[in-house]
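Q: Is it fine to ask for two folds in a single conversation?
A: Yes, each is treated on its own. Send the first.
Q: Here.
A: Result:
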Amino acid sequence: MTTLFDLKDKNAIITGSSKGIGKAIAYRMAEHGARVIVTSRKIDACEEVASEINSEFGADKAKAIACNIGDKEQLKNLYAKSKEFYGETSTLVCNAAINPYFGPSMGISDEAFEKTMKSNVLSNFWMCNEVLPDMVSRKSGSIVIVSSIAGLHGSSMLGAYAISKAADSQLARNIAVEYGRNNIRANCISPGLIKTDFSKALWQNETILESATSGSALKRIGMPDEIAGAAVFLASDAGSFTTGQNIVIDGGEGE
């Protein structure tokens, strides 16, 4: 490990980290020296991942906290408990998201639209506002929001989800501008099609998978671990001059 990517003495919260991209980010950050908070709705799943990380990289590298991102009080509790475990957060990774509806925008219910916006945008806004005061006081911090390439283009089937992910990109840019003077950086990572449970409908059928990947330069689906490196970069000294950006990792989609 080089010092450029060293996360020793760093503390990170990664939402939605009991599986998929979030789990990969937690694992790789711990590998590079960070202490990580593994969080999602189900405590059993979080504890299982934390145990894996502690077994691999040493005791007390990971703690598990259950949290429903759609509940503001639970997000407040998440940060309060994380401070009890490890102190102030160096890096916040907002990875948790939902997509309850797939289809034309006219077909989505108000309830599903509001739920998508609350979970994918408002929860990130809330969580960022929890950690920012301590980051300002410390004059150091990195915020990473996992967005999606869906937020970069119009979509006939992912309308609400795409809108929420576009909003996440703007949230990161706003934070970068507002808090840059305090040495706080904020960026997005926009993955393409990644092999996770979240995107199972797009890859478990071979015909759909071939269609979804045919337009990319690499002609294949991505893996969660192929997103984690960007998060490590943004949390480390290697990313110290990177802020307000949306890093696209999509295998060369449309190239």
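Q: Second one now.
A: Result:
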Amino acid sequence: MTPSISIDFISDVVCPWCALGATALEQAIENVADDISVQLTYKPFELNPNMPPEGEKAVEHLMRKYGRTAEDIAAGKAMQIARGEAVGFTFDLEKRSHFYNTFDAHRLLLWALQEGRQVALKKILLRAYFSDGQNPSDRETLVRLAAEAGLDAAAAQAVLASGAFAEEVRELEAFYQQRGINSVPAMILNGRHLVSGSQSVEYYEQMLRQMANAPAEA
């Protein structure tokens, strides 16, 4: 019988380390697909829940929120770009000019889970923001990206207009925060094992194989 592992991947679509971690994890899942069944679900976390609709310029935001210098920010960008190249994810951080509110994106991701297209939509949202500089708080953009992920555009528009999944997003965010998750990415495997931070493809693959071969827990 093929062993199975469930993964809740807690992240935000404007988090570069989440983009790296998600890309590496999905590659690791592909590498073990012949031996292990993995159920991957993306869970919401807002880095900037109080961000206004117009967003904030990226450099100014990083300097204000984290106390970083321009040199720190430049070094961080170079590291992210290099890490992205290693896993095949393209960062164009000149196009990524602003940080935005992501509440609507998380609502749409929960709806996409229900429709069986969440992983596809997540990948498209990350690419749209980090590679193409698109605004994940703009509803017309979200509808277009949902259609690109194979979802019904009219249904996506209705979800966003109705406020659907708002309560579910807030409940999930509160659930993880109450359990001490205050930075992302974070992964919970089989409902109990926490892995924090962005790791390599090799790390994730080894972790999945070790879990699959571990004795069943009581």
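Q: Anything structural to flag on that second result?
A: Two points. The CA atoms of residues 116 and 151 lie 9 Å apart. The mean pLDDT is 95.
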